[in-house]
Structure formats: structure tokens, C-alpha cells
Amino acid sequence: MIVVVDERELVTKGYNSLFDREGVACAGFRSGEFGEWVESAPEEDLRSVRAFLIGDCNEGSISPRQLRDRSKAPVIALSEQNNLENTLKLFESGVDDVIRKPVHIREILARISAIRRRAQEDTGFTQIGAMRIFMDGRDPEIDGQPMPLPRRERRILEYLASNSGRRVTKTQVFNAIYGVFDEEVEENVVESHISKLRKKLRERLGHDPIDSKRFLGYRLVV
Predict the structure, then answer these.
(1) CA–CA gap between residue 47 and residue 133 (Å, rounded)
(2) Model-level pTM?
(3) N or C: which end of the chain has fewer CB within 10 A?
(4) Tens digit of each residue's pLDDT (9 = 90 or more) over 195-204
(5) pLDDT tens across 63-103, in order?
(6) Enclosing H/E stretch for 210
(7) What are the backbone angles phi and psi of residue 201, rounded to the nearest 5°?
(8) Neighbours of 115 (CB within 10 A)
(9) Residue among 62, 37, 73, 61 at smallest CA distance from 162
(10) Are residues 196 and 164 in the same domain?
């Protein structure tokens, strides 16, 4: 899930629509609401956040350094001012990157992936048996051959891979794919997506790589 903080509702709704087209969940806040949410949100919800995008907010209302006390997700400033002084000021506040608007939504996703890659010191993909699962929106590969997937199934596979070695609950998967505040979609839709994903992976691999246990959740296995 991507969290966008901006005082303008039109802006947050716009990003929500754009990220949704890419199969990425998005939640929008005004700065005051955001501060309250960060302080009170369960750890499970914060772990589902892929990045924080900070737009037009009241000065001093968002502290990237304090935000990191609760989340390790990248903090990126969206700037409408094309000048060096403003850019340096934003970096000094503690953000991980500054993106000047207008910008294509795919560039934002690419920058988020690059920051997370550097932070994790990985190669941009997770190898689990014959599966190579990328974190930048590309389809996974099985034995070196691409395996096209619908965007929701691909995002679920990416999320499972990013939590390799740990079991994640249905709620965690739902929050990561649809967002914490999406009340229009039933949480049980996760089971449907995972069922379809398992069938496709089983056909290509010859076995089911998604281990599931009732009440405990899912994890990828070799």
C-alpha cells in the first residue's frame, strides 16, 4: 500500500485512481489525520505500507525522522517547486527522495523499488526454488521463462516473496494489496486470488509453493 499525504482531497483521490490502475493499493490523508493514524495504527497496518508520499502539507506537520520510529518504509516528497533551495530543504527534513511534479506514476513506483532495494541490499528479486519474483512490477519467471499474471495475483506473489520465511495472515495480504481503508472489497477476495495463483503456479512448477495454515496464514516454500 502507498500512503499519500496532501491537504487537497482532489490530489489524494487522483493518486488513488492512478495507483489503482497499476494494481497498487493507495490511501490518502490530510496531514492532521495522518499524524493521528501513524500514532494509533497497529503494527500490522504499518507493515503493509510500501512507501509514504508527502505532498502539499502544513509546514512542520510531517517529520520523516519521527515517522521512521514506527515504519521503515521510504518517505518521498512530491515537490511542485522547481528550485534547488526547496529540494535541499526537503532532504534536510529527512526524506529519502524528492520527486518533482508532474511525474508518471510508474516512475514513482520505480523510485520506491530502487530505495527499498538499496535499503535491503538485494538484487531486486527474490529467488525461491525455480521462481524468480521481481519487486518492480515485472511478471515472475519460472525456470527463466516469464509467467504473466493479473496484477492482483502478481502483487500477492510479490508480497509473499517480500516476507519470505515468515507467515503472513489474510488480513496482512489484504491490507497490502487493497489498502487498510478499502471497505468496498471483502477480505475473503484474497482467498479467491490465492486459489487462482496456486493453480497457475502448480501447473508450472508441478507442486504447490504456497503453504497455508488456518488462522496462521500463508508463506512461500520451495
Answers:
(1) 20
(2) 0.64
(3) C
(4) 999 999 999 9
(5) 888 788 888 899 999 998 888 998 999 998 889 999 999 99
(6) strand 210-213
(7) -65, -40
(8) 17
(9) 73
(10) yes
